[in-house]
Design brief:
By secondary structure, the chain is mainly beta. It has one helix at residues 3-11; strands at residues 24-28, 33-36, 52-53, 58-64, 67-72, 77-82, 89-90, 95-101. The protein has one domain (3-101): Beta Barrel (OB fold (Dihydrolipoamide Acetyltransferase, E2P)), CATH 2.40.50.100.
Amino acid sequence: MPKGEKAEAAGKQLAVSSQPPAGHVFVRAANLGTFYRSPKPGAPSYVEVGGRVSGDTEVCLIEVMKLFTPLIAGVQGVVREVYVTDGALVEFDQPLFLIEVDA
């Protein structure tokens, strides 16, 4: 893939509805910055679609000006969607993950 197309693909985000489906919640960005799915390049992602999370599970990092802030799931359930590509810019309160909450 040519360099310009790679950059364009990396910046694309999945369309997200304003409300999660019943029994699901969004994990939203706590601040603006660059979204990272893993703790360092080449490392496995914190979470994958289909993976289980608990209230204290770290799901990603958001970096702004060399300050890396971990984002915690805050709920117990199963990851159903990841809306942002690794290295993309995110905005405050932007949905990043869709979690199906345990009943």
